[in-house]
Write a structure and sequence with these properties.
By secondary structure, the protein is of the alpha+beta class. The chain contains 15 helices and 16 strands. Strands 1, 2, 3, 4, 5, 6, 14, 15 and 16 form a nine-stranded mixed beta sheet that branches. The structure holds zinc ion.
Length: 485
């Protein structure tokens, strides 16, 4: 691997934190043992057995026949809300449902400190979903608070919409809580022509711009300061068996392009190879060029030629995808006249992503010149990366590391290799945390799932990993909620 250095423009603090975490852990472990964890300190009945049972129960609440589907404000989603509220009450939490259908749970007396710790995930699903995505984060958070019984900063939040399946727009729930959801959203329609306003009214919400404005999270009256949010559960394939948990350092930024390649349409049997201006082969070359660029960026980007700021860490997590390719007229006996394709580029480092976009665009023009075809690159979408809060990330990492160390004596052998170590990862997929980052500091915990498969009934998380996730949250909340505000 090439070494590229530019220590100042894109400093990476995550690895520094990675090492300091364990010094901290060594000093707080006795406190966790003595004050909070009690007994064996592992709370298997609540954090593992009951949590897994509830995941299976929530799995059964579906709008689909024989598959899992709970879209925003659907009858199934309302039934799921009732069940989630009952679990929050069982944990001793006072609940309320806001005007976008998000469920909030907290202990009484209400938070009197200047900070809140919101922990949650989303209760909506994709169509033909797995039972863990979203639900795992909500139920683990409820279970953790049930164990801790700790009034004050911690609160659970179950977001009504993250997937955006019904209205083709993501983060309805969390963006409303963050105060960034535009009023115009009320008029957006689903496939049947039903608007967001219609479905909210159907479920007895006010569905007005003013009501939407009230959803924005505000700390207690007269209290100012930061609120903290932690969206605890995403799922990801963690490469080694020894790592049931991962901590997220940030959510990747994204660029979407459309590349249009124009050539000369012609008869597949009559135009000689030397005379062809074939946009299909040009497009094929461009797809491979993109792959090379993102697989081995160091070969294409260097200090002198580009910006001089690419460390190995800044390049890690760079992913590029061509997901859609259309040809015209798309017939087996015709050399196409036009081919266009989509490009999705994601990276944690915005400068890396922007440089890849510039480099790819330049290569497109070069290669199209060589092949005598005309090319254009259209910019469709760009979103900056969302870094997680460094302090929260460090605390989650500490909590995950200490959890695995605690579980080692009783847990399966696969835990031993990872005890005391927690991978710090970038999330390539979007999450509620992206929306909430507009309001407050965010942190995220990932749980290992089989093969990294999500958004599928094949989603699979080991029961012991569910337990580890719940225990990590207990450790994390306990440390945060008792720390000085
Ligand atoms: Zn999802």
């Amino acid at each position: 691997m090439a070494l590229l250095s530019c220590p100042t423009r894109h400093p990476s603090i995550y690895h520094l934190i990675f090492f300091s975490v364990y010094l901290l852990f060594a000093s707080i472990l006795p406190i966790l043992d003595g004050l909070v964890l009690g007994g064996d300190g592992l709370y298997r009945e609540i954090l593992r057995d009951e949590t897994v049972l509830r995941l299976k129960e929530l799995r059964k609440i579906s709008g689909g026949e024989g598959y899992l589907e709970r879209t925003f404000s659907s009858p199934a989603s309302i039934r799921a809300s009732d069940v989630i509220i009952s679990w929050m009450k069982d944990a001793g939490l006072t609940t309320r449902i806001d005007q976008m259908g998000n469920i909030h749970g907290q202990f009484e007396p209400a938070n009197s400190t200047k900070e809140a710790l919101l922990i949650g995930s989303h209760m909506d699903t994709v169509i033909d979903a797995g039972m863990y995505d979203g639900s795992l984060g909500i139920i683990c958070a409820i279970s953790a608070l049930k164990v801790l019984k700790m009034p004050g900063k911690p609160q659970v939040i179950a977001f009504s919409d993250e997937e955006g399946v019904r209205f083709q727009t993501t983060f309805l729930g969390s963006a409303a809580v963050a105060g960034t959801l535009p009023e115009s959203i009320l008029q957006v329609s689903d496939k049947r022509g039903t608007t967001v306003q219609d479905v909210l009214k159907l479920n007895s919400f006010e569905a007005t711009a003013a009501a939407l404005g009230q959803v924005r999270y505000r700390p207690q009256a007269g209290v100012c300061g930061d609120s903290w949010y932690c969206s605890p559960m995403g799922m990801v394939a963690l490469a080694h068996d020894g790592y049931p948990l991962g901590v997220v350092k940030g959510i990747a930024g994204q660029t979407r392009l459309k590349v249009i390649v124009d050539g000369s349409q012609g008869h597949a049997g009559t135009v000689p190879m030397k005379l062809r201006r074939d946009p299909m082969v040009a497009a094929a070359e461009l797809v491979l060029t993109l792959e090379r660029l993102c697989k081995e960026p160091n070969k294409f980007l260097s200090y002198r030629e580009e910006c001089g700021c690419f460390t190995e860490e800044s390049l890690a997590g760079l992913v590029c995808t061509v997901g859609e390719l259309l040809t015209w007229p798309s017939a087996s006996n015709v050399i196409p006249g036009q081919v266009n394709f989509t490009v999705d580029i994601r990276a944690m480092d915005d400068k890396v992503r922007e440089t890849i976009v510039v480099s790819f665009s330049r290569l497109v023009l070069q290669k199209c010149d060589d092949r005598l075809v005309d090319c254009a690159v259209e910019h469709k979408h760009a979103a900056a990366a969302t870094p997680c809060d460094a302090e929260l990330t460090a605390e989650l990492e500490r909590a995950a590391g200490s959890t695995l160390s605690m579980m080692t004596p009783t847990a399966p052998a696969s835990y031993r290799a990872g005890a005391g170590e927690t991978p710090v990862l970038m999330s390539g997929a979007g999450h509620d945390a992206m929306a909430m980052a507009r309001l407050t500091k965010v942190g995220m915990l990932f749980v290992r799932c089989r093969g990294g498969v999500s958004h599928s009934p094949e989603e699979s998380v080991m029961d012991d990993d569910v337990w580890a996730a719940g225990l990590a949250l207990v450790n994390f909340i306990d440390y945060n909620a008792t720390a000085e505000s």
